[in-house]
DNA sequence: AATATTATTTAGATTTGTCTAAATTATATT
DNA sequence: AATATAATTTAGACAAATCTAAATAATATT
């Protein structure tokens, strides 16, 4: 199956948006890929032709098993490159996404498997997202919860669910990174903000919007 | 200047073919890029529009200073990635070209400069070709000569001028790699073949075609 | 249920990079 | 110099990926 970069981006987007949902809407994909719904319809026909998605007019889009397999390989490539950029080239986690977005389209199984080996076969990327292995299997992770729902006092940052530069920059500025231990000081009901404290720093408050996007492990 | 992958490939090809020549022909570019002369003419108009080449109908093509600057950056990216693949991911030098051909189009100065640093700012790639620095300057190399023209007895392989898989495979099979020391046993005038010997191996003969493409340093 | 709103698709156009076939220009040969 | 051959360009077409505007279908609201 030889896919264009555009086709790979659609597959990846559908995979990301599907997550649980039965189907993904034309509009959602268009928004995610910063394109127009009409373009999504066009591409849907092509991907259906290639048997990578199930698609009936007006009925939404979902990946076929083959489409999902391909999506997972793309995710694998993306996350391994992110590891490389952070671990080997000393990029910070909030600046690797765009570059990995390009590197992920270089298709060579040998390259990716060697890269994985070189990095020590990591199972999570710098954002805490799991990296599927060459067979597409995810190592089952400890259960992660978003910070706004975690009940424990002491938590460890294990990832972020929104990878927009704005959020990553904010976390960077606050000194929150993967593995950072956080103590929850107080939760404010009226706006669901959370006061937290990082070791050796004074406490500060983060909004619900932020806490919803921080994934944590309970310690 | 935002170039497409196709445009970059044309720039790179023109740079490679120009080397000394005043201009490059439409046909030569078409052959090098495995496309048709008509397509080259089409692209020439576009690149002229962008002021990356000098081009007048029927008069051949040459890079402008800006075109050359860009070409050298592409060459830098290509060769650094080749180093990475060989030095870090244990690829052999005859299998890296195609992959580097894709990686070279990922445009991020920061990425390339960090990669260079990570590799120890190498000045030659696994084929012995010089790697320009971030400013586009080549470190002046010891003068290399092709094996068919070298007069000395003892030589060291410093590169190959043709990087086709077929040649690289041949060299690999014969145990000839970068840094290999060669003794010239005999030169046969009638077909310009050369009998050579590698330490601890029995002598064998290589054709003019091969010897022309092996670049050597005199020891 | 009728109507308004939103989502989706179709139709037709555009851009990029390519092609083939025909026309033109340059170069080589007699 | 005339003619043959080779190189190059033009003209017109195509596929991929996109777009806008209009049409249609699904969903929500009154």
The secondary structure category of chain A is: alpha+beta
CATH names the topology of the domain at 145-218 in chain A as SH3 type barrels
Quote the distance from N terminus to C terminus of chain A. Answer: 44 Å
Enumerate the spans of chain A where pLDDT stays under 50 for 5 or more consecutive residues: none
Rg of chain A: 19 Å
The greatest interface between two protein chains, and residues involved on each side, is:
A-B, 17 and 17 residues
Give the helix level of chain A as a range of percent: 40-55%
Q: What is the architecture of the domain at 145-218 in chain A at the second tier of CATH?
A: Roll
Biggest β-sheet: strands ordered side by side in the sheet of chain A: 3-8-4-5-6-7
CATH class of the domain at 145-218 in chain A: Mainly Beta
Basic shape of chain A:
globular
- Average pLDDT over all residues of chain A: 92
Output the number of helix runs of chain A: 8
Q: What string gives the helices and strands of chain A in order? A: HHHEEHHHEEHEEEHE
Quote the beta fraction of chain A. 15-25%
| CATH homology-level superfamily of the domain at 145-218 in chain A | Ferrous iron transport protein A (FeoA)
Oligomer: homodimer
Q: The biggest beta sheet of chain A, please?
A: 6 strands, antiparallel
Q: What's the β-strand tally of chain A?
A: 8
Pfam families (chains A, B): Fe_dep_repr_C, Fe_dep_repress, FeoA
Family (chains A, B): Belongs to the DtxR/MntR family.
GO molecular function (chains A, B): DNA binding; DNA-binding transcription factor activity; protein dimerization activity; transition metal ion binding
Domain HTH dtxR-type (chains A, B): 3-64
